[in-house]
């Protein structure tokens, strides 16, 4: 399975590093959790039909050199039933690390506002994901084929595609285009506006951690946010999780203890070695992080259906941090079961099954090993995780082993400006207060037209999800401000 190789490789190296695993989740909860949520959402307002057409554009494999002159088919999806032509706006989703249909289906916000804005919706797939493979089945087979998997190439794809759409679609020549994205897609939306201001009039970058690089933000804020989510969701909750690590370590000292742990957690494969225990702890950590990302106010779906405010439900099991080791760990088991066995159908818990074994993980792992070097750390004092420092050298060595390449940790800020972005205009940065990824987000406006919106009760890009009867007021306010700003950009585009 794709992810296993990657995850295991890293796990063994950092003695259970969950750092790399964490970014893989960017798109999982971005997309998959939305996915079935429509079905479980209690009082859904009329959802527009998800009808779109699929197209393929002959895209250059390499926009920046002239030797590799081949083409590949980039997939994009178009929904134009509300488009007011000629000249009506185009909302352009800057696809991130996954199948574009997933993002299309699950970015309910775009579907919800299309009619009001008279907008065409376009969802463009990111190269090396979904069906958009530059070298077909060979794309992931060798580092030389992966060489064109960069954010710059992806942004150039978007620019070339938009130019083509405006030239080829009747009535689109003067259409203002707005970039929209969430997570890594949000980073791309913001960077797209920065690099190609003549192509898009503005960008909505939701839950986009554009500052989770180098030392632009402290490396431990991410885990502190996760911790706070648990701390405020029930008494003793974060403390129970903090205490669980020592209990696990103590239990793991003997083979009887390992056996006990394996049974207590109903694990599919029993823990046998130190590496297994590292992977087990990594899996638990990842579960807590995932819960923070999907802590939505209404039932949603991840691996399995989740209740509304899942962390509160989890914390009901974690109110006695001082209980005996075995009791504490049994409570932890009950808590993770909310995540993995809410419907009561799980046969056993599989510690290799955290995110998904899809190609999305693999591609992101490569991107994390080249451009997307995001430092994370924890200290077990200001957060509830085991202490772990950020070690770029070890990270780089792991990348070299895995991919035959070494990361360039300073490239992203060099290319896109890091914090020096105040000369740009018309970008909205929205972040949820519950979302660990808000750690690397822009949470204060950087001027009139670089607008930060914080949604205190929001998890990972709640604003991009469909309207829901249980939405907190703060996300309704955020969405209406987003629509107002988009209307302003559209109006300005037509009046200058
Ligand atoms: C997206 O939605 C369409 C229509 O509802 C469905 O057929 C398709 O399987 C979905 N694709 C994904 C990747 O979710
Ligand atoms: C999942 O829940 C059901 C019903 O409570 C239980 O019988 C089963 O053992 C649980 N599975 C795991 C892996 O704990
Ligand atoms: C655990 O998950 C991995 C990855 O999805 C899979 O390959 C493996 O077969 C699963 N193991 C069991 C016992 O279900
Ligand atoms: C941003 O500006 C500061 C102060 O002028 C400078 O020290 C820093 O190197 C700049 N960063 C980038 C990425 O250009």
TrEMBL record:
Organism, as annotated: Leptobrachium leishanense (Leishan spiny toad)
Stated name of the protein: Lysosomal Pro-X carboxypeptidase
PANTHER family (alphabetical): LYSOSOMAL PRO-X CARBOXYPEPTIDASE (PTHR11010:SF38), PROTEASE S28 PRO-X CARBOXYPEPTIDASE-RELATED (PTHR11010)
Keyword Transferase assigned: no
EC number: 3.4.16.2
One Pfam family named in its UniProt record: Peptidase_S28
Catalytic activity as recorded in UniProt: Cleavage of a -Pro-|-Xaa bond to release a C-terminal amino acid
GO process annotations (BP): angiogenesis involved in wound healing; negative regulation of systemic arterial blood pressure; proteolysis; regulation of blood vessel endothelial cell migration
Signal peptide boundaries: 1-33
Broad class of the protein's primary localization: other
Assigned protein family: Belongs to the peptidase S28 family.
GO cellular component: lysosome
UniProt keyword terms in alphabetical order: Carboxypeptidase, Disulfide bond, Glycoprotein, Hydrolase, Lysosome, Protease, Signal, Zymogen
GO MF term list: dipeptidyl-peptidase activity; serine-type carboxypeptidase activity
Chain's gene name: PRCP
Record function comment: Cleaves C-terminal amino acids linked to proline in peptides such as angiotensin II, III and des-Arg9-bradykinin. This cleavage occurs at acidic pH, but enzymatic activity is retained with some substrates at neutral pH.
